[in-house]
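retry 2 of 3: previous attempt timed out while embedding S-adenosylmethionine. Reduced batch size to 1 and resubmitted. Inputs unchanged:
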Amino acid sequence: MAENAIKIYNKRIVDDKWPAESFHMDSNSLSFPDNTFTHSIANALVFVLPDDGLGTLKEMHRTLKPGGIAIANSWAVIPQMDAIEAATTTTRPPGTPLPLLKRERWSHPDMLRGVMQKAGFEDVKVTQTEMWITTCEIHRYATMLWSFVLGTSSVACSIEEEENWDRAIGIIEEELMNTEGAEVVEGRRLKLRFVVNVGVGMKSPM
Ligand SMILES: C[S@@+](CC[C@H](N)C(=O)[O-])C[C@H]1O[C@@H](n2cnc3c(N)ncnc32)[C@H](O)[C@@H]1O
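retry 2 succeeded.
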């Protein structure tokens, strides 16, 4: 996790007088003793981990008290992915891998349910919830998305692609506006509909 994100969190703890503490550690190897917490939350985490989050969920299970509750989530619908895929296939060399291919696996609630059960949780329930996000101005949002995609791609960006930069951003803007449920609001900002799988499981009370 970026050091800056931790600094911002620590500042919020002080400014808003949260009863909280932060610890920076690998989620696959928590330094907390067994049976410590009543609740443990992995927000937007399990699907970025190489083992589908199994090691992390096992650590959450270990550090929860008996009867403790774990919450983890995954995206069922990420509205900007079709736009990113359209810009990738139109402006990048043939065969360039599409970003976040794993979304196909994670979009179904069974994936999250399965990995939580495998980690030892009981009574796992996964529900889908809609979430609306209002972006910054759409051109800026499309530029940030494309910068992220090119910056994290396994295929380096060529000069020809740099020349296609504006075209790619234009495709993303257009596709975003055509996303199901999308709405342009004041300041050419975009209201986008996401759907989240929220998994809740319990550590056996015994
Ligand atoms: C999509 S972000 C979500 C961040 C945060 N949970 C939130 O809600 O904003 C995923 C985060 O997982 C972190 N991450 C990846 N592997 C990790 C690991 N093994 N242990 C702890 N954090 C990890 C990344 O650094 C990144 O900050």
